[in-house]
Amino acid sequence: MERTIPRFPLGRTVITPGALEAITDAEQIPAAFLARHVVGDWGEVCDEDAQENESSLREGFRILSAYRTKNGTRIWVITEADRSATTILLPEEY
Asked: What pTM was computed for the model?
Protein backbone atom coordinates (compact mmCIF):
# COMPACT_ATOMS: atom_id res chain seq x y z
CA MET A 1 0.00 0.00 0.00
CA GLU A 2 1.40 3.36 -1.03
CA ARG A 3 1.64 5.98 1.69
CA THR A 4 0.08 9.35 1.02
CA ILE A 5 -0.01 11.02 4.44
CA PRO A 6 2.95 13.26 5.33
CA ARG A 7 5.00 11.80 8.18
CA PHE A 8 6.85 14.98 9.17
CA PRO A 9 6.97 18.69 8.33
CA LEU A 10 9.31 19.74 5.53
CA GLY A 11 9.84 23.28 6.77
CA ARG A 12 11.18 25.72 4.20
CA THR A 13 11.97 23.90 0.96
CA VAL A 14 15.00 24.89 -1.10
CA ILE A 15 16.83 23.44 -4.07
CA THR A 16 20.41 23.90 -5.21
CA PRO A 17 21.13 25.14 -8.74
CA GLY A 18 22.67 21.78 -9.71
CA ALA A 19 19.67 19.77 -8.52
CA LEU A 20 17.25 22.15 -10.23
CA GLU A 21 19.14 21.81 -13.50
CA ALA A 22 19.24 18.00 -13.25
CA ILE A 23 15.54 17.74 -12.47
CA THR A 24 14.59 20.21 -15.19
CA ASP A 25 16.80 18.42 -17.75
CA ALA A 26 14.92 15.19 -16.91
CA GLU A 27 11.61 17.03 -17.46
CA GLN A 28 10.56 16.38 -13.87
CA ILE A 29 9.49 18.68 -11.05
CA PRO A 30 11.05 19.07 -7.59
CA ALA A 31 7.67 18.54 -5.89
CA ALA A 32 7.65 14.90 -7.06
CA PHE A 33 10.78 14.17 -5.02
CA LEU A 34 9.47 16.07 -2.01
CA ALA A 35 6.20 14.13 -2.16
CA ARG A 36 8.04 10.80 -1.98
CA HIS A 37 10.35 11.99 0.80
CA VAL A 38 7.63 13.35 3.11
CA VAL A 39 5.60 10.12 3.08
CA GLY A 40 8.61 7.97 3.94
CA ASP A 41 9.58 6.64 0.51
CA TRP A 42 13.31 6.96 1.11
CA GLY A 43 14.22 5.93 -2.44
CA GLU A 44 17.60 4.33 -3.06
CA VAL A 45 19.03 4.26 0.44
CA CYS A 46 20.47 1.10 1.98
CA ASP A 47 18.48 -0.79 4.62
CA GLU A 48 20.62 0.69 7.39
CA ASP A 49 19.92 4.26 6.22
CA ALA A 50 16.19 3.50 5.88
CA GLN A 51 16.16 2.23 9.47
CA GLU A 52 18.07 5.33 10.53
CA ASN A 53 15.40 7.51 8.88
CA GLU A 54 12.67 5.65 10.78
CA SER A 55 14.57 6.24 14.01
CA SER A 56 15.11 9.88 13.05
CA LEU A 57 11.35 10.33 12.73
CA ARG A 58 10.93 9.27 16.37
CA GLU A 59 14.06 10.93 17.77
CA GLY A 60 14.07 14.17 15.79
CA PHE A 61 17.24 13.71 13.73
CA ARG A 62 18.05 14.58 10.11
CA ILE A 63 16.26 12.59 7.38
CA LEU A 64 17.93 11.69 4.07
CA SER A 65 16.35 10.25 0.93
CA ALA A 66 18.13 9.40 -2.32
CA TYR A 67 16.52 9.23 -5.74
CA ARG A 68 17.45 9.25 -9.41
CA THR A 69 16.00 11.48 -12.09
CA LYS A 70 14.68 9.89 -15.26
CA ASN A 71 18.12 10.68 -16.72
CA GLY A 72 19.85 8.74 -13.96
CA THR A 73 21.24 11.70 -12.00
CA ARG A 74 21.34 11.07 -8.27
CA ILE A 75 19.33 13.50 -6.14
CA TRP A 76 19.34 13.78 -2.35
CA VAL A 77 16.54 15.24 -0.25
CA ILE A 78 17.56 16.19 3.29
CA THR A 79 15.25 17.44 6.04
CA GLU A 80 17.03 19.09 8.95
CA ALA A 81 16.71 17.65 12.44
CA ASP A 82 14.60 20.58 13.66
CA ARG A 83 12.35 20.24 10.56
CA SER A 84 12.97 23.89 9.72
CA ALA A 85 14.12 23.18 6.16
CA THR A 86 14.32 20.54 3.46
CA THR A 87 16.93 20.78 0.72
CA ILE A 88 17.02 19.05 -2.66
CA LEU A 89 20.61 18.74 -3.84
CA LEU A 90 23.11 16.68 -5.77
CA PRO A 91 25.33 14.49 -3.56
CA GLU A 92 28.43 16.37 -4.70
CA GLU A 93 26.84 19.61 -3.49
CA TYR A 94 26.64 18.35 0.10
From this structure: 0.95
